[in-house]
Specification:
By secondary structure, the chain is of the alpha+beta class. The protein is 37% helix and 20% strand. It is globular.
Length: 224
């Protein structure tokens, strides 16, 4: 009898391990869903911040994606707000991974006066031509801003001042998947990239509002 060779031999060698590999894969997925994903969806937020209602929650009643994140910023809302109202592709960027979400153009490191006139009805652009984006639904400067489309997706920003002069910056995304290509693609993007992009954005928003230096994502208060 001749020994098996080539592709057949490789398949026979892997065969006994297939079940174990599948088991490890399922276990990894279960751990991610049970432990990692919940932490990603609530990064930086307290249990109270996650559970309590925010403005705009009623616009998407039964979301299939829900994430509440937060960060403390050593600045009052009035100094954080200008950085928020100027975000968007072709505007000040997203303070995140510019190569991915701002066509490689560096996000602004200063408040841009001509980008401060955002108002309800305006679109926060997410594409170069401005056709894709989130419409400003409501604003209460310098505390609350609600973007999105009722029944589909909302993105809320809430700035809450603290007695010590700091501010809690809360952000919440509520989205409901629809069975058409753009909605499905957006939902996939939320699941895959949302956490990393929002986390980076919050950290960079904090550093800009606090006046920290910013170079390649590495910051230090001592470098001011």
């Amino acid at each position: 009898m001749t020994a098996p060779c080539g592709r057949r031999a490789a398949l026979m060698a892997v065969g006994p391990w297939r079940g174990l590999l599948v088991l490890f894969g399922l276990a990894g997925a279960a751990i991610h869903l049970a432990v990692v994903r919940p932490r990603q969806l609530t990064w930086g937020a307290t249990a109270d911040e996650v559970s309590r209602p925010l403005p705009g929650d009623d616009l998407v009643a039964c979301p299939t994606f829900l994430a509440t994140r937060a960060i403390s910023v050593a600045a009052p809302p009035e100094e954080i707000w200008p950085w928020l109202v100027q975000v968007g592709v072709t505007r000040a960027g997203w303070y995140s991974y510019d190569l991915l979400d701002n066509l490689g153009r560096p996000s602004a490191r200063r408040v841009v006066p001509e980008l401060q006139n955002l108002a309800p009805g305006d679109v926060v652009p997410m594409s170069p031509d401005g056709r894709q984006g989130l419409r400003v639904h409501a604003m209460d400067p310098p505390r609350t801003m609600v973007w999105g489309t009722p029944g589909d997706t909302t993105w809320v920003w809430q700035l809450e001042p603290r007695p010590d002069g700091t501010t809690r910056v809360l952000t919440r995304i509520r989205s409901r998947i629809r069975l058409f290509p753009m909605s499905i693609a957006f939902s996939v993007l939320l699941e895959v990239a949302d956490f990393w992009m929002i986390r980076k954005m919050l950290l960079n928003l904090r550093d800009r509002a606090e006046g920290r230096d910013d170079e390649d994502g590495i910051r230090s208060a001592s470098m001011r």
